[in-house]
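Example (one chain per record):
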Amino acid sequence: MIRFLLLQNRAGKTRLAKYYVPLDDDEKHQLEREVHRVVVNRDPKHTNFVEYRSYKIIYRRYAGLFFSLCVDVNDNELALLEAVHLFVEVLDHFFGNVCELDLVFNFHKVYLIIDEFILAGEIQETSKKQIMERLGELENVKE
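Predicted structure:
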């Protein structure tokens, strides 16, 4: 199960956070600082999987952003790393060459995208085509 998803820049500023377990605000801020410290200081030659407390952090860096997932120890790392990549591909397709500012100014759309393929901390959809079709339908409804 995915515990939380974080998008952070190199400076440690959290650009997006989605939690699937209940946590206090203080705990969330502490987790964000700790996860950032772990992934930023990690040697690029190492794997993108880190044991963290009794969980695993799966992260990937795209340009200046770190996409991090905290998951249960028994979850499949490669499948979740692929889910991070799918998320980035969908963002890129939806925004057309996505950048950090797209995430900041359109955070509500980013949450919508996350909700299209992750439900209650579990991956629900892995087809980019299906996700993009659903997002297209939702965009048409708003107009």
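Caption: The mean pLDDT is 92.
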